[in-house]
Amino acid sequence: MLVLNRMFKNGWREPSFVMTSYLDRIGAGSVLADPEVMDFDWMPPELVGRDEVQRELASKFSTLAHPEGTGRVVITGPVGSGKTVLADTFCRDIQRHLAGKRNIRSVKVNCRNASTSMRVVQRILHLLDPGHPDRGLSMGELLLSLRRLLRRESSHLIVVLDEVDHMLRRSGDDLLYQLLRIDEDQEGKGTMSLILISQEQVLDVLETAVISRMGASNHLRISPYSVDGLEAIALQRAKLGLVLGTWSPEIIRLIAEKAAHTGDARKVIELLNAAVERCEFRQDGHNESHIIIDDIHEPSSTLLATVGSNLEVIDDLTAHAMLVLLAMCRRLSNQETMTTGDVEQLYAVVCEEYEVKMKSHTTVWKYLKEFENRQLTVSRVATIGGGRGRTTHLSMPHFLPKDISSRLEMLLKKRIR
To answer: What CA–CA distance (Å, rounded) separates 335 from 320?
Structure first.
């Protein structure tokens, strides 16, 4: 509704008021309950999908409970493999675990932002003591200040240098050497532990003296996330960040499968965020109030093209392979998964519709394997009946089933007359 404004004699016009109903969704919280949980940098209360890696990291710091115990580790892995959140949660958890036994503090410096050794030390001191001067002091004076500060507080400091390769390229590894020998010529030991994080194998560029002190065996390599790990991440964020009843475990699994080829935690979080946004956009009191398959697959200009953007991958399938795939698409348009038994039942219905004779069970199974090889579908074997049996669940995470179905119906008009 528009309220007409009045013009006064001096030419000033009273502001008009316009109903801004299109903004009503902002803050409505129809699907999203806690935006912070959907942030890439949110620290979870518990790290999921990395149990074995957490145990290996903890083993590198097994002496930390002792008064002079220290630890050091180099964590490497691809983008989105959880290197930073692994270190962050470890530092938080070890401080809680040893509370009352040892005073442990931690600081993290991103060496992409502080890319020289001088800036790194200045940043460490500022995080520990915000009032400490960061200008006019030499490297030796800064390190001496750091040593005195830790001694005065009787604390053990865990220094995390994220993206450390940026500092190494600009300043070399002398700072690492100085930090590793910070207790030399001093009373007492065990002042500092060190965690280095990088996408690259930085041990290859360190001098022998630094490698000797770090320990060549203290290298923790992290692999990309498995689909189960990605599912655990998306499920945790859905439970803590979304309104109850707006998502299902099946839809979370489909999102994880869509991100599985990347092994990237950021990708699965991005896909979950995009699905939430599209679901929120649909809310007008008449549409589904929970995330549906279309919310996952609907194209978005904010998402890069991924596997599954080219529908022509189905054009050279045989006619009966197309019929099998059409049967699957019709079910997967409104259901996240289906079993191989479902496929054969629906394939029979489609064959009757097109007035053709069904192929054998073995041939249908070969078609299903071909779909998976072409990355049209994803299969997952699950146990049933208390572990006494196994069944295969099929899904279509990379394509919108309705799009595939429409193209198949067009192609089948020419193949089957």
So the answer is: 23
Strand pairing category for 219-221 and 192-198: unpaired
Q: What is the pLDDT of residues 145-173, one digit of tens each?
A: 998 888 888 889 999 999 999 999 899 99
- Is the pTM for the entire model greater than 0.90? no
Could you give the CA distance from residue 191 to residue 196 in angstroms, rounded to a whole number? 17
Helix (H) or strand (E) holding 2: strand 2-3
Q: How far apart are the first and last CA of the chain?
A: 56
Cα–Cα distance between 396 and 308 in angstroms, integer?
10
Q: What length is written for the chain?
A: 417
Give the H or E element holding residue 107.
strand 104-110
d(CA 307, CA 101): 51
Q: How far apart are CA 123 and CA 129, in angstroms?
A: 10
The DSSP secondary-structure symbol of 135 reads S
Residue 139, CA atoms < 13 Å, CB-side half-sphere:
13
The upper half-sphere exposure of residue 43, i.e. CA atoms within 13 Å in the direction of its Cβ, equals 11
What is the DSSP-derived secondary structure letter of residue 308?
A: T
Give 186-221 pLDDT, tens digit per residue.
665 778 999 999 987 787 788 888 888 888 889 999
Instruction: Determine the Cα–Cα distance for residues 403 and 309; give it in Å rounded to an integer.
Output: 11
Angle between helices 265-282 and 227-241 (to 10 degrees): 40
Q: Which two tokens stand for residue 358?
A: 């069904």
What is the structure's pLDDT at 308? 42
208 within 8 A of 61, measured Cβ to Cβ: no
Rounded CA-CA distance 242/85 in Å is: 21
Place of tokens 């979950």: 272
CA dihedral 115, 116, 118, 121 (to 10 degrees): 40
Q: Has residue 28 got a pLDDT over 60? A: no
HSE of 403 in the Cβ direction (CA atoms, 13 Å)? 18
The tokens of 224 are what? Answer: 């990309």
DSSP string, 147-200: HHHHHHHT-EEEEEEETTHHHHHHHTTHHHHHHHTTTTTSSS---EEEEEEESS
Alpha-carbon 401 to chain mean position: 25
User: Can you say how many angstroms the Cα of residue 124 is from the centroid of all Cα atoms in its chain?
Assistant: 28
